[in-house]
Amino acid sequence: MVLQIYTGEGKGKSTAAFGLAMRAAGHGCRIRVIQFLKGNSFAGELRSAKKLGIEVFSFGRSCPHATLINGGFMECDECAECWVNPEKLTDSDRKKASMAWQLAQNTVREGSIDILILDEVFAALELGLLPFEDFLKWLGNASSGMEIVLTGRNAPPEVIAMAHLVSRIEKIKHPFDINGHPRRGIEY
């Protein structure tokens, strides 16, 4: 198993993982993306992944405005209705994280894909939605023929120590600092 990590406070961790997935799909690799705490929404990478045959499973809150945003009738204004609030975790949030974790374990056990991406898994770990010791053990026992990519802020040192490639994404500056809004085709 080769383990990659995209972590840090900057924007672009999920984007980097999806870029890797799209490149690999171009070479015929079988890819599965499991998104923790993210709902199936209007993000361009989800639409592109579908066209390329990349499996994406999103286990989070869906955007109530996704249809309007996809149709070009409105822009994402970051209303936060689709975000998981760490201060107000619901039973549904916990259940969805558990389902995502179960799918990740089954995916490695089956060994039927080449690349497994666990998007925002570090947020799920930090919120206590996944059993940390079980996660470490699972990583240590993962299939030797699989590439596993983990994303999210605050990658634990124990996981970093196990990784073969670690990229820390740091924001130097960003258009959000000026206009405060995500841009269609760039941030989503």
- Biggest sheet character: 6 strands, parallel
Give the number of domains.
Answer: 1
Q: What is the share of helical residues?
A: 25-40%
How large, in whole angstroms, is the Cα Rg? 16 Å
Strand order of the largest sheet: 3-2-4-5-1-6
Low-pLDDT residue spans:
none
Structural class: alpha/beta
Count of runs of 4 or more consecutive helical residues: 8
Quaternary structure of the protein: single chain
Number of strands: 6
User: Which percent band covers the strand fraction?
Assistant: 15-25%
Average pLDDT confidence is: 93
CATH homology group: P-loop containing nucleotide triphosphate hydrolases
Helix and strand pattern: EHEHEHHEHHEHEH
CATH architecture: 3-Layer(aba) Sandwich
**What's the CATH class label?**
Alpha Beta
Q: Termini separation (Å)? A: 30 Å
Per the CATH scheme, the topology name is Rossmann fold
Q: Tell me, what's the shape? A: globular
What does this structure look like?
The protein has 188 residues and is of the alpha/beta class. Helices cover 38% and strands 16% of the residues. The chain has helices at 13-26, 44-51, 66-70, 91-110, 121-126, 132-140, 157-162, 176-179; strands spanning 2-7, 31-36, 55-59, 115-119, 147-151, 165-168. The chain has a six-stranded parallel β-sheet with strand order 3-2-4-5-1-6, with helices on both faces. The chain starts with a strand and ends in a 9-residue tail after the last helix. 32% of the residues are buried. One of its GO terms (molecular function) is corrinoid adenosyltransferase activity.
